[in-house]
């Protein structure tokens, strides 16, 4: 059966999943567009609910799961990247309770507090996955992991990462329970260069929002750390700062 109407109930549902964070969380499912992204979701054992395929565009192998054929006009309606690749999957979300994570002895964890922009969160996920970070914790976060823009900007790296959502106090309790070295990014005279910090042991680096930095909650909770710079600018884009930190962690572990 070919779905050709925008008024089809399944098309209405997927459109709402794409646009409404609260509906997506309540439904406990999310949308993945693109062949590479769907392949990664399946590879990392995300459970598919159904797929929507546009035969005029899709060039890959049909998924071994429930799928529906849709017209090109309908596909372009539900595709947030236009007419790309012709496949959209709907998957069940996974549990993101921090209590389920048991870090290894030399784990490095990145913590971003209050992150709001899905694109930033996706870029951060991409760096964390690329440089072997053990987990990303979103503390007091406002962005949804399963927002389509997070998945798109992370190029599906979300699926291969340990990602957790927690309040600040829960995050601090977790770090103390597992004896993490806590490195904060509060700007003051006590801050030391990042390459002087030890990432060969359990380490957590905390970043705040771009406009206000870390909240007062984290004052005095860790060792202040900075990225040395030689130019006239005294700060970096959040995702760039995280990427440099992730690389430093990997560099030290490979020495």
Task: Explain what the structure shows.
With 255 residues, this protein is of the alpha/beta class. It has two domains: 2-92, Ribosomal protein L30/S12 (60s Ribosomal Protein L30, Chain: A); 98-253, Alpha/beta knot (3-Layer(aba) Sandwich). 31% of the residues lie in helices and 21% in strands. The protein is built from eight helices and twelve strands. Strands 8-7-6-11-9-12-10 form a seven-stranded parallel β-sheet. It has a five-stranded mixed β-sheet with strand order 1-4-3-5-2, sandwiched between helices. Helix 1 (9-19) crosses helix 2 and helix 5 (118-130) packs parallel to helix 8. The radius of gyration is 20 Å and the shape is elongated. The N and C termini lie far apart (58 Å).
Task: Compile the SSE list and pairings.
Elements: E1 2-3, H1 9-19, H2 21-27, E2 29-33, H3 35-43, E3 48-53, E4 67-70, H4 72-78, E5 87-92, E6 108-113, H5 118-130, E7 135-139, H6 148-153, E8 163-166, H7 168-177, E9 181-184, E10 192-193, E11 203-207, E12 223-226, H8 238-253
Parallel strand pairs: 1-4, 3-4, 6-7, 6-11, 7-8, 9-11, 9-12, 10-12
Antiparallel strand pairs: 2-5, 3-5
Helix pairs in contact: 1-2, 5-8
* Span of the ends, CA to CA: 58 Å
CATH topology value of the largest domain: Alpha/beta knot
Mean pLDDT: 92
Assign a percent range to the helix content: 25-40%
- Written as H for each helix and E for each strand, in order along the chain, the element string is EHHEHEEHEEHEHEHEEEEH
Our estimate of the beta-strand percent is 15-25%
Instruction: Count the E strands.
Output: 12
Q: Number of helical segments? A: 8
By CATH, the superfamily of the largest domain comes out as SPOUT methyltransferase, trefoil knot domain
State the name of the first-level CATH class of the largest domain. Alpha Beta
């Amino acid at each position: 059966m070919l779905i050709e109407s925008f008024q089809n109930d399944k098309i209405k549902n997927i459109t709402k999943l794409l646009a409404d964070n609260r509906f997506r969380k309540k439904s406990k499912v999310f949308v993945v567009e693109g062949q590479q992204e769907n392949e990664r979701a399946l590879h990392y054992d995300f459970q598919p609910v159904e797929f929507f395929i546009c035969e005029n565009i899709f060039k890959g192998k049909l998924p071994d799961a429930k799928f529906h054929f849709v017209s090109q006009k309908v596909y372009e309606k539900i595709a947030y990247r236009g007419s790309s690749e012709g496949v959209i999957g709907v998957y069940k979300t996974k549990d993101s309770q921090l209590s389920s994570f048991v870090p290894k002895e030399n784990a490095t964890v990145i913590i971003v507090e209050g992150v709001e922009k899905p694109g930033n969160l996706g870029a951060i996920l991409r760096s964390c996955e690329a440089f072997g970070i053990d987990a990303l914790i979103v503390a007091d976060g406002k962005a949804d992991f399963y927002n389509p823009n997070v998945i798109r900007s992370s190029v599906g790296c979300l699926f291969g990462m340990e990602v957790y959502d927690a309040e600040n106090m829960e995050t601090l309790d977790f770090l103390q329970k597992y004896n993490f070295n806590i490195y904060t990014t509060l700007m003051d005279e006590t801050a030391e260069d990042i390459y002087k910090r030890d990432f060969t042991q359990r380490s957590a680096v905390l970043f705040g929002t771009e406009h206000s930095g870390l909240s007062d909650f984290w004052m005095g909770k860790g060792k202040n750390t900075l990225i040395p710079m030689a130019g006239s600018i005294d700060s970096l884009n959040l995702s760039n700062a995280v990427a440099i930190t992730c690389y430093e962690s990997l560099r030290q572990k490979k020495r």
